[in-house]
Amino acid sequence: MNRLPLTAAIYLACCTMAWAQTAPAEPDAAATPTPPDQAVKDTRTLDTITVTSQKRVENLQKVPISVQVLGEEKLKQQDVLSFADYAKLLPSLSYGTVGGGVFSGPGFAQVYMRGVASGGDGNHSGSQPSVGMYLDEQPITTIEGSLDVHIYDVQRIEALAGPQGTLYGASSQAGTVRIITNKPDKSAFSSGYAVEANTIEGGGTGHVLEGFVNAPLSPSAAIRLVGWQKHDAGYVDNVFGTRTFPTSGITIDNAGRAKDNYNWANTVGARAALKIDLNDNWSVTPQVMGQRQDANGSSGYDPSVGDLAVTHFYPEHSNDHWTQAALTVEGKVGNFDLVYAYSHLGRQVDSQADYSDYGYWYDQPGLGYGAYFVDDSGAFINPSQHINAKDGYTMTSHELRLTSPQDNRLRMVAGLFWQRQGHDIYQRYLVDNLASSLEVTGFPDTIWLTAQQRQDRDEAAFGEVSFDLTPRLTATGGMRFFKSENSLEGFFGFGPGYSSSTGEAACFSTEQFHGAPCVNLDKSTHETGSLGRANLTWRIDDNRMVYGTWSQGYRPGGINRRGTLPPYKADFLTNYELGWKTSWADNQFSWNGAVFQEDWKDFQFSFLGQNGLTEIHNAGQARIRGLETDIRWRATTNLAITSAAAFYDSKLTENYCGWLRPNGDPETVCPAGTLDPNGDVVSGPEAPAGARLPVTARFKGNVTARYSFDLFGGEAYGQAAVIHQGDRRTDLRTAENNLLGNLPAYTLADLSAGFKKGNWALDFFLKNAFDKRTELARFAECATAVCGNEPYIVTTQPRTFGIRFSQDF
C-alpha cells in the first residue's frame, strides 16, 4: 500500500511520455519568464515574496506568522549550499551536535528555534526533534534529526518560528523549516549549471558541480532533473600523539592514522520530478530525491592538542545515504482545493567512531576502568573502545488536505495525517583482544551491544477556520487531535561474564533479536490529546497589519533505551505572540517583527547516564521571552540592504533536581542535604530556577548590503554580510556547564563580488573573511562529568576563498 501512490504516478508518467510523442509541446508565451537582463532595473520597489507556510499560497506580508524567507536569489547571493550556510542567516534558528566524532559533522545537526532547547549530552535515538523539517509538502525529520539537503535549484527556504502544531504536528513544537524546490515547468525548456572551486585557509581544496534540466514532455507535462557532486575539504588535523592508561601502564599511539585535513566529506545526489496536468483541475507530481555522503574525521577539535587539531586513535567515518520518494496530487472538489501528499524516506548510516576517551577518563585514579579489561591469558589490554554502528531509518507519511477558496469571507483548511517512523539500531562497542569470557555472546571483542528496533506512529486530524469579522479584521481558530505511539524492542548491554545484572543477565526471552543473543527490552507507550491555535489579525491598510496569536505545540513521549527507566512523557509549548508586517515608502522599505512569550511544560532533557547510555527525563518548566524582527530596504536603485535579528530571554522557572517523583513528575524541591532516590546527599538542584537555557544566544542577527551597477554591458556587484551571535551556555546543568564552559560571542564577515552578462555569471566569495575561530558547539565524547576534562570545539570553517561560474539556458 505504501508503494501504490508512487506506482500510479509512474504509470501516468509513462502514459504522458507516450502522449508527448504525438502532441509536441508548444511553449506558453504568457508564462515564459522575462530574462533577467531584460527586466527593468531602475525600480526601487521590493520584490513580492510568496510563501505556503499556512498550506496555501500567500504574500509573505499578509501572513500572520513570524516567517523568515530566503528566496532563490538570496540563496545564490550568499552561496548557500548546506544547512550550516542557511542556519547562520536565520536568527530564530540555532543548532547543536548529535554527538562526537563524525556525528559532529555535516548531516547530524540538532535543530532548535526560539530558544526552545534543553541541551544535554544525549547522543543517540533520543527525543523526537522539536523543529519540523519539510522538503516541499513532505516531512524529512527523522528520529535522529533532519536531513542535510544540498541546496541547489531551490525556490526558497521558509523558517516558521513558534509552535506550528495545528498544521504541522508533533515535530513542529518550536517551529518549522521548509525547503521548497523548483517544480517542473511545461511552458519552456530551461537548463543550467554551476562550477565552484574553493580553498580553505590552512586546509584543503574543495569543489562543487551542479546542474539542472527542465524539459516539457507535452502541453500537459514536464520533467525536471537536478544533480550535484561536492567535495568539502578538511581543515582539522589528526596529529601524532600517545596516550598512557593509568591502571595498566599501556601506551598507545596513532602513528597509522595521523593525517592533515582529515575531516573531509564527499556528497553526491540527484532529484527527479515529473509534473502531469491530467486536466484543467488535476495534476500529479511524483518526485524522487537521493543523496549519499561519505564523511571522515571529526569537525570538532581538541584545544589541548592545538588549533584545529585532535589526536584520535581509531577510525572515524560515516556513510550516510538516503532516498525519498514523494507524490503530490493537487486538484479541485467543487471549488475546494484538494492536496494529497505522500512520501517514503529510507536512510542508512554506517559509521565507525573513536571512543577511546571513554576508556581513558574512566581509567583515572578512583575509577580504575582499565582493571576490568584483560585478554584470554588474564593480562591487561588496551581498554580503548571504538564503535561500529549501523542505523537504519524509515519514515512513511500520508496527508490529505482540503482548502476552501481564499476570497471567501469564511474559509478553512482541514486534513488528515498519518506517519510511521522506524529506527533500527545496531551498535557494537569494541575492545580489541578482549577475553572471550567478557564478550557479548556471539560477538567477538564486543563489550557492549545494542540491537534494538524503535517505532514511532503519529495520527492526526486537523483544521483551521478563518472569518473576516470586517473587511480588515480576521479571526482564525484551529485544532489538531492527535494520537502517538512509541515502542522499543531488542537487546542492550554486556555479556554474562562482565555483568551479573544487566545485558544478557537481564534477558527475559532467549529468542535472538537481529542477531543479538536474547531480548531484554520490549516496551511501548501511547498518548492522545489536542492542540489549539487562535489568531486575530487587523489589516490597518493595504501595507500594514498587526496580529495576536495563541498557539500550542508538542513533542511525543517515548521509551528510554535503558529499559529499567520509566517512559518519558510528552512536553508541551504554549505561545503568546504579538506581531506586525509593514511596508513603507511605496514598498521600498519593509519592517516585520513579533514579540512573544512561550511557556514550556515538563520539557524533555537528554543526557548520558550509566555506561554512556542516553537517558531522557522530563525536567520541569521553562519560559522563553523574545523579539524577532527583519528589515528589507531598497536604499537606492543600486543598493539593497537586508537585516534580521532575534533577542531571547530563556530560563528555567522551576528547579531541575535530576530525578522524578514516584508519580513520574520531575522533582523540583531539592535543597542542599536532600537525599536523591539512590540515597545520596545532593548539594542542591542540578540547575536552579532562573538559570538560562543552553544552546541559544540572547542575541543573534545579521545584515547584508549589496551594491549593483552596470559595467561593460553587464551587471557587477559587491556584497558584504555580517553575522553576530552572542554567548551561549553549553549545558542546562550547572556542574556540566562549568566543565565545558560557555560558548563565547562571535562576529563573522562574508564578502563577495561578481559580474553577470547575458546568461552567464562569475562570482568570487570570501567566507569568514577575517578567519575567526568561532565556537558553534562544545561536546565531550562520554558523560560530561567524566569526559568533560577533554572538551571538543566545533567551529566555523576557516577563511575560505571560492570562485563560481554559472550559466543558464
What can be said about the biggest beta sheet? 22 strands, antiparallel, barrel
Label the CATH architecture.
Answer: Beta Barrel
Number of helices: 7
Roughly how many Å is the radius of gyration? 27 Å
Helical residue percent band: under 10%
Number of domains: 1
- The CATH topology assignment is Maltoporin, Chain A
What are the key terms here?
single chain; 809 residues; mainly beta; Maltoporin, Chain A; 22-stranded antiparallel beta barrel; five-stranded mixed β-sheet; 7 helices; 50% strand; disordered N terminus
Structure at a glance:
The protein is mainly β. It has one domain: Beta Barrel (Maltoporin, Chain A), CATH 2.40.170.20. Helices cover 6% and strands 50% of the residues.
Give the helix/strand layout.
Layout: H1 4-22, E1 50-51, E2 58-59, E3 67-71, H2 72-77, H3 83-87, E4 93-97, E5 109-113, E6 131-135, E7 138-139, E8 141-142, E9 145-146, E10 154-161, H4 165-168, E11 175-181, E12 190-200, E13 205-218, E14 221-232, E15 237-238, E16 242-244, E17 251-253, E18 265-277, E19 283-296, E20 300-301, E21 309-310, E22 317-333, E23 336-355, H5 356-361, E24 385-403, E25 410-430, E26 446-470, E27 473-493, E28 521-541, E29 544-555, E30 571-584, E31 589-601, E32 604-608, E33 614-618, E34 621-634, E35 639-652, E36 699-711, E37 714-725, H6 734-740, E38 746-757, E39 760-767, E40 777-779, H7 784-787, E41 792-794, E42 800-808
Parallel strand pairs: 6-11, 15-21
Antiparallel strand pairs: 1-2, 3-10, 4-5, 6-7, 8-9, 10-11, 12-13, 12-42, 13-14, 14-18, 16-17, 18-19, 19-22, 20-41, 22-23, 23-24, 24-25, 25-26, 26-27, 27-28, 28-29, 29-30, 30-31, 31-34, 32-33, 34-35, 35-36, 36-37, 37-38, 38-39, 39-42, 40-41
